[in-house]
Structure formats: C-alpha cells, structure tokens
Amino acid sequence: MYDPSFFEWLTTSPWANAMNGPEWAFPVVQSVHFIGFAFSIGTIAIVDLRLLGWGMRHQSAAELAAALNRWTLVGFALMLITGPLMFSADAVTYHNNASFRFKMTVLLLAFLFHFTLHRRATRSGVLPLAAKFAGGLSLLLWIAVVAGGRMIAFV
Amino acid sequence: MSMHALLEWIESTDLSTAIREGALYYPIIGGVHLLGIALFGGMVLATDFRLLGWAMPRIPVSDIVRQLQNWKRAGFVVLTSSGLLLAWAEPQKLYRSPAFWVKMALLALVGVHALVFRARVYGNADKLDVAVTTEARLAAALSLLLWAGLIVSGRLIAYDA
Q1: A29 to chain B: nearest residue by CA?
Q2: Which tens digits make up the pLDDT trace of B13-23?
C-alpha cells in the first residue's frame, strides 16, 4: 500500500510545479482553501447550531440543511481541489507530518458522519437529544479538522 | 514615542514574547482565528448569499439577519481579539508587510460599509422580506468582496518576510 515513489512523483507533477513556481501560487490556493471551508464548515455550523437549539430556531434543521446543502457541497469541492494541490507541492513532507495524518483521519470521520448520521439527524421526527448530540459532534469534528490543519505548519 | 519605539516596546512585553516564542500559543491563537473565519465567515456568507438570492430563498431575510446577528457579533469579537494577539506577537514584521496594510485598509472599508449600509439594509430586514432592494444586493456583493479580500490579504501576510 505504502509507496514512497508515488509521493515523490507527485512533487514533480505539473500541478506541483505550478504550485512551487510563482511565489503567490501557494498563498492564493491556500486562501481559496480557507474560502472553501468557510462555505462548508460555516453552513454546516448553522445547521449544527439549530440542531443544538442554540440558534436559527424559527427554521427547522431540515429546512436549513436543505437550503444550505448546495453551498456546503461547493465548499467541499473547493477544499478537495485546493487541498490535494497544496499536498502535491510537498507531498513527502506532508505525508510524514503527524498533524497532517491527524487531520486526514478526522476529516474522513467528519465526512462519514456528515453524510450519514448527521444527515439523518436533520430530518424531522428525530429525538431532541439525538439531534443535539449530532450537532455537537459535528461541530467538534470540524473544529478538530481546522485545528489539525493549522498545526501542520508547526510540527 | 516614535512608531519604531512603540513597536519595540510591544515586542518587549511578556505577552508578545510568550506568543512569539512559546511553542503552542501562536498555533493555538492562529487556530482560533481560522475557526473564526470558518464560523463567522460562513455566517457572513450565508447572510450575503440570502440577500443576493443565491441561498435559502424561501427563508425570510429578517429571520436570517436577526437570528445570526449575535453569532456574527461573537465571531467578530473572536476574530479581532485573536488577530490582535497575533499582531501583538510580531508588530515590527507586520509594520513592514504590505499585505498587512492592505488588510487594515480593507478592515477600515468594512467600517465604512457598516456606516453606509447598516441602517438601511441589515437594520431594515423586515422591509427586505417584501422585496430585496438593489441597495441591499449591492451591500451584499461589496461585503463578499471585502470578505474574500480580508482572507487573501491575511494569508499573504505570512509570505511577506
């Protein structure tokens, strides 16, 4: 499964060269990454606040989730394009970075949770306690993803 | 006190030294700042997209503006206080960074935006439930541009050596 040559090859790929070329390439792609997670995590957080009963109580969680879903997915798409671009620029280093591995693990859990139990919790007829649990866990998972991402540059 | 002396004094404070040299303070405060972008930024985005008619078209504007207001205020406080702490850690570097000054100029424009649009758009949401005015759309579009500009300029600060 583990193949170091794959990561070495990634760093020599045309898109990695583009990322490592002009000085502004990396920060600009990183900014788009931030904008992407503001879209996705921001919209998810609005639904989570509703699940927790902390905000947006004039609307149901189902209504909010349906109305915001498209923009959550746009955010995911932006993150999933810019993330791998940044990874390619220095693939071997990131692959060996403990924070990066933590982030990928939590990200996988966050995605799995988002598309399964979290989605179910936004439907009507869910026990209030289950809705609160889903909202709280979702917020925690996404906070851990952001925190793990921030730490990549510091370990 | 000259600007140079002021910046040197800031860097000599215990707080500045601790954030700059402690292993964890800087990434943790940076992480809080980033979370502020995700949560607060997401709410600004949701409000502006609603005004532009791009998101949640069936939910009344007044519901979104009012119910997110306190969360946005809290987010703004988190962003500015974490940002201030990050700036406190290395004021001399920031003083020389063009991206930092671009970001400060954009922040000033956020203030101008509030002065111009607050009362007639965000404080007048009931009227917008009937029909979103051109002025409100303009406010939302400008707000989004400022928002994106703040993120990009903020990120570029790290690359101004």
Answers
A1: B152
A2: 999 999 999 88
Are residues B38 and A55, on separate chains, in Cβ contact within 8 Å?
no
Nearest residue on chain B to A75, judged by CA atoms? B42
- Which helix (DSSP H) or strand (DSSP E) does residue B29 occupy? helix B25-51
Contacts of A67 in chain B (CB under 8 A): 55-59
Q: Within a 10 A sphere around the Cβ of A37, how many other Cβ atoms? A: 26
pTM to 2 decimal places:
0.93
* pLDDT exceeds 70 at position B161: no
Output the six-digit token pair for B51. 């005004």
d(CA A144, CA A131): 20
Report the pLDDT averaged over residues B39-57: 94
Interface pTM (ipTM) of the complex? 0.91
Quickly list DSSP for chain A.
Answer: ---HHHHHHHHTSHHHHHHHSSTTHHHHHHHHHHHHHHHHHHHHHHHHHHHHTSS-TTS-HHHHHHHHHHHHHHHHHHHHHHHHHHHHHTHHHHHT-HHHHHHHHHHHHHHHHIIIIIHHHTSTT--HHHHHHHHHHHHHHHHHHHHHHHHGGG-
pLDDT in tens, A121-134: 999 788 989 999 99
